[in-house]
Write a structure and sequence with these properties.
The chain has 471 residues and is α+β, with helices and mostly antiparallel strands. It has two domains: 148 residues, Adenine-n6-DNA-methyltransferase TaqI, Chain A, domain 2, CATH 3.90.220; 235 residues, DNA methylase specificity domains (Adenine-n6-DNA-methyltransferase TaqI, Chain A, domain 2), CATH 3.90.220. The chain contains 13 helices and 27 strands. The chain has a four-stranded antiparallel sheet with strand order 5-14-11-12. Strands 9-6-13-10 form a four-stranded mixed sheet. It is elongated and about 95 Å long. The relative contact order is 0.09.
């Protein structure tokens, strides 16, 4: 029982012990004269349903029961009601009868409430609270109170791993109770307003979805403009992609002479546009028409290339599960690379020993400016290596895209996020996905290459536009 005193402080008297305690810090606001603060547990009898488990198949009789998946704000969905055995005692203690207020305990819908107004009783699963009123005509008023509390984020139990509304939390909720006539007036008004609020919520949800869809579509459109050479202007003094490719060819020759690159790397494809506006690819002495592979036109100072002509694709050496450790050098699978691609970091709990890393690093490890790409699961998620912090990665599920010729790695990441890249591996799939991205596949995919300085300007423009969109 909550009692205000003459000094406008609030005290709670515990009838079982006679203890009186000041609860001013729990009172959220002042209420009019004639109103009272009360705990929900003092105006309802509370119980929960029965735990659902495979062991409940024997004992008692089969009874229909509802779960949180049947309970929504102000109504029930009963077309998927389940059946479980309940004993006679369980039916008495774990059932709702007409007029009971039912409340979801856990999950995303915790606090969701509805009044059971059917002419038959229904059994309950243990994640549904049953509030049976001790005060006539109180349920509708408390229902709207619960809705307000949920929308105000005042229901979640503190210190729990998952959001939820425990029995203790529910019973201890303080509710402002008006005189009966005022309560009835408030309830009548809310009955008229609530459908309007629900309608507005649904419209707002659709608007949020539309805004999100427009945002995503706009990002994709801007990205497409970028890789087609239409996002920033071209400047003659920045040179051409042809000149960039010639520099790469000369650097490859130098690396071959130094024994750092295989001679076969010099047998690159050369893609050019003929006088008849068709695209041809020359590899060694072989030449063929590849016009059907070219998805769109690019500026004259850009070039189409095979990815393997400008980047080095490789995978890791095999790390067995028995080599996994709880500390040491971080070891990334596709799921970690995906998180790195999205967030720039990952809370890694998988490692390999320093000695194994030292041995495998002799075969090469990612360098600053290289890119790591998911090759299984959600394909093509790309992380740019920005530091010298050592890590290793899983063969087969992650590919390292070596960038020895210093193309702008963030331009490359933009391209790998584009539909122009995705369409190439999706065209090789049976449906909407392909099992893996392999080194062979990735090497032969096409990429539009701008001059180096233009790559940087594209990246900066995308940053600016994205920042504006977020505002």
């Amino acid at each position: 029982m909550v009692l205000p005193n003459s000094l406008s402080s609030y005290y709670e008297k515990f009838l079982a012990t006679g203890e009186v305690k000041c609860i001013d810090d729990e009172i959220p606001f002042e209420i009019p004269n004639g109103w009272e603060w009360e705990r929900i547990g003092n105006i309802f009898n509370h119980t929960s349903g029965k735990q659902q488990s495979s062991s409940n198949k024997s004992g008692g009789t089969p009874q229909k029961f509802i779960t949180t998946s049947n309970l929504y704000w102000g109504y029930f969905v009963l077309d998927n009601v389940k059946v479980m055995n309940f004993t006679e005692d369980e039916i008495k203690s774990c059932s709702a009868t007409k007029g009971d207020l039912l409340v979801c305990e856990g999950g995303a819908g915790y606090g969701r409430s509805a009044i059971w107004n059917y002419d038959y009783d229904i059994c309950l699963q243990n994640h549904v609270h049953r509030l049976r009123p001790l005060v006539d005509g109180i349920c509708e008023y408390v229902f709207y109170f619960m809705y307000l509390q949920k929308e105000s984020n005042n229901l979640a139990s503190v210190g729990t791993a998952m959001p939820g509304l425990s029995a203790n939390k529910l019973k201890s909720l303080l509710i402002p109770l008006p005189p009966t006539a005022v309560k009835n007036d408030i309830t009548d008004i809310l009955k008229k307003v609530f459908p309007i609020v629900e309608k507005y919520d649904k419209v707002q949800e659709k608007l949020n979805l539309l805004n999100s869809s427009l945002y995503d579509a706009l990002k994709k459109s801007i990205l497409q403009e970028a890789i087609q050479g239409r996002l920033v202007p071209q400047f003659v003094d920045e040179g051409t992609a042809q000149e960039l490719l010639e520099q790469i060819r000369q650097e490859k020759q130098k690396l071959v002479k130094e024994g750092k690159l295989k001679k076969s790397a010099l047998t690159d494809s050369v893609i050019y546009k003929g006088d008849d506006n068709k695209y041809f690819e020359k590899v060694g002495k072989t030449e063929q028409d590849i016009t059907d592979e070219i998805p769109f036109e690019i500026p004259d100072d850009w070039k189409w290339c095979r990815i393997g002509s400008v980047l080095n694709i490789w995978s890791a050496r095999r790390v067995h599960e028995r080599d996994w450790r709880s500390s040491g050098i971080p070891f990334y699978r596709a799921r970690e690379i995906g998180k790195m691609a999205d967030w720039g970091h990952v809370d890694n709990d998988l490692f390999i020993e320093q000695s194994l890393y030292d041995e495998f690093s002799k075969s090469g490890v990612p360098q600053i400016g290289d890119l790591m790409m998911t090759a299984v699961g959600t394909l093509g998620k790309t992380y740019v290596v920005e530091t010298n912090n050592p890590f290793y990665y899983k063969d087969g599920s992650v590919l390292c895209i070596g960038n020895p010729f210093r193309l702008n790695p963030y331009y490359l990441k933009l391209f790998f996020k584009s539909s122009a890249f995705a369409n190439q591996y999706l065209s090789e799939s049976d449906g909407t996905t392909v099992a893996t991205l392999t080194m062979v596949r990735l090497n032969r995919y096409l990429i539009p290459v701008p001059p180096l300085k233009e790559q940087t300007r594209i990246v900066e423009k995308i940053k600016t536009v994205t920042s504006i969109m977020r505002e």
